[in-house]
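The instructor's notes for this session suggest beginning with a concrete chain rather than abstract definitions. Hand out the sequence below and ask the class to guess, before any prediction is shown, which regions might be ordered.
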Amino acid sequence: MFGSVARGEVSERSDVDLMADFNKSSYITLVKIGSLQQRLSEWLGAEVELSSADWMREPVRSRAMREAVVAFRDSLTHLRDILEGIDLIGTSAQSR
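After discussion, reveal the predicted structure:
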């Protein structure tokens, strides 16, 4: 997680910015990303913006990496189930 929620600067307009490691060998479509964002939004009860560091440009990537905090350590099994269900989880996320 990064952005205003990670920084503790939440407002009424804040969304939850999540950064994920995606499986580079899988074909990732915008439909899959949209579906995952929707499922995460429903699960968290807040609007989710899903990104990958690979998709970000500087200086946004550096700032996101600097302020990122682990958001799903306790609920990682459930998040893995969601990600594996649509074949998007990266191998680095599986080992965490």
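Then share the key points. The chain has five helices and two strands. Confidence is low (pLDDT under 50) at residues 86-96.
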